[in-house]
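Request: Mind sharing a record?
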Amino acid sequence: MNNLIHPLPAEARNVRPPEQMTYPFCYEPHPLCLMAAEEVRREIALHADWQEEIAEGKMLGVLVVEGGFLAAFSGTLCRRSTLPYFVPPVFDLHGTYFEEEERRISALPMGDERKRRSQELQQWLFGQFTLLNAHGQKKALLDIFSPKIPPSGAGECCAPKLLHYAYSHRLHPLCMGEFWMGRSPKGEIRQEGHFYPACQHKCKPILTWMMQGLDVEPNPMMKDYANVVQRLRIVYEDKHIVVVDKPSGLLSVPGKDELPSLQDILRQRYPAAEGPVIVHRLDMDTSGLMVAALTPEAYQHLQQQFIRHDIEKRYSALLERPLPVGQEGVVDLPICPNPYDRPRQIVHETYGRRSITRYKVVENCEGHALMHLWPETGRTHQLRVHMAHPLGLGNPIVGDRLYGQPARRLMLDADVLAFTHPATGEPMRLTKQVSYD
């Protein structure tokens, strides 16, 4: 009997296993994964020597297989890569040439020799990582990332550990999830108990290889895209501008997945439109009002209004937890893209750009705070980061798959848009009725 296959609780017998394996980059955790995560929490509570590091923040993962589940932690725990209860790393550094050479390099003075030997040691380490896929095929980490060099820590996250162990022991994966325990890191946003998608930078190339041979569910963001496009609604139009209500799940401009975007749709609908059409953007997950230009003159006029902050934009959002009604304030944080996990944003004092949001708590609805938000800057994911980050409100928007917990959609809507008509000079104020039932 494999002592790393742990039993699920008795109530799991009443839960139907998923028909397809989890798509790891966008998912809602299956009930079996939620049960497995609770079992991991119970096990961790029994080990006093693990508590301090877990409290500082640690990503853990579960893989449900036929007969039970496997558990893993990202990186190391208590300075060890192998601990009872958890699957071992793909390659264990303990007692290897890596540790000996690392000590020798640490004793060298800073300079070219130390840098050269550090790079050579990193290359040696990558050469030791060989990963399996569901077909039983092997591939070296260097070949998976070729011609690029793998990022530091590649192969040491939960998901690669879990899948590699399962394949090595002829176990059949059913579903998987990675969840956070402890405090959020200073820059990134991690909420205690929330599940998170696998990262793009380190894990996407690895998992794309490792999941070959599994029947993986389609990307939830893409499988219903045709219906998303059909939900696009024209709110106002004339020969100069068009205002639309963009549904959640629709790209504003073309992305790398070659899916139709709002820009593509508008160009088809208004073939005579000249010059740029999209004046401003909403995140793919955000719904609400957007104004687009149908003439170069309208584009330039609207763009200048945005630059001068003459355009009023208000958003409504539903947060995961309640807040005192009437509370208002300003969130002011320096944010920038996470270079290791796009499209996530992080708070960074050195590289971040200032981002400012005014907010007010309107009411509480069934345990959730309903907010009005006024962004004074326009950074990517600004409102989502400001609500979720501990230095902001520490209270994610409902349905935020990147910074909170996934749901049927992100409960964030651009519901007021006010500007001056670029041709007539008349004030325009458009509103959207928002319901979070």
Observations:
- The mean pLDDT is 92.
- The CA atoms of residues 169 and 258 lie 38 Å apart.
